[in-house]
Amino acid sequence: MSAHYADIAFTDRVGDVQQRYGSQKFYARRRHRGTGPDRITPEVRAFLGARDSFYLATVSESGWPYVQFRGGPPGFLKVRDDTTIGWADFQGNLQYISTGNVAGDNRVALIVMDYPHRRRLKIYGRARVVFPDDDAALIADLGVPDYDAVVERGVLVEVEAFDWNCQQHITPRYSVADLEPHLDTLRNRIADLEAENTALRDNCRPSEGGTR
């Protein structure tokens, strides 16, 4: 847990619930350890650079939270510097709810998952939307070469705090890309066995003119 995370997450009402379940004293020691923003660590940088998706939470003008999936090739979520992350926002369902919400309230939260290794990173930050006519160079830098998607805008998030979450209850899930190396091994093994079976069948066939 980063130094600033508890100060954001553990409000008085959260503390009341922690008191009910006996964890308030444990987490109280983590409050007021420093002011944000917290620096992105090398571990966080490497983790984010390898991900192909995350979940983005924003707050609407009506007060309702909104959670949106964001995906792309591994590495599309970029660490810009020690306190900033960003990504190219690809064209989607044309609802623009997250983009509109950020225009009214720039506070966001990200949950970034690594299902195969049961790891989860939570990030608090403040987002800024950048359109191509505002900063074409930035949009180009956030883009992903050879990825067939329309980049409508870029998003920069100034990270305030982050926390590695407990892996309990995270069900391991694997993408095709995760499984492909193992599938290749199985395919090669199957091909070898089929060739071996063919050779055995050929050796067992009686030769022409032979006795039966």
From TrEMBL:
Signal peptide: none annotated. Transmembrane segments: none annotated. The keyword Protease does not apply. SUPFAM superfamilies: FMN-binding split barrel. Keywords: Coiled coil. Residues 176-203 form a coiled coil. Residues 40-136 form the Pyridoxamine 5'-phosphate oxidase N-terminal domain. This is Pyridoxamine 5'-phosphate oxidase family protein.
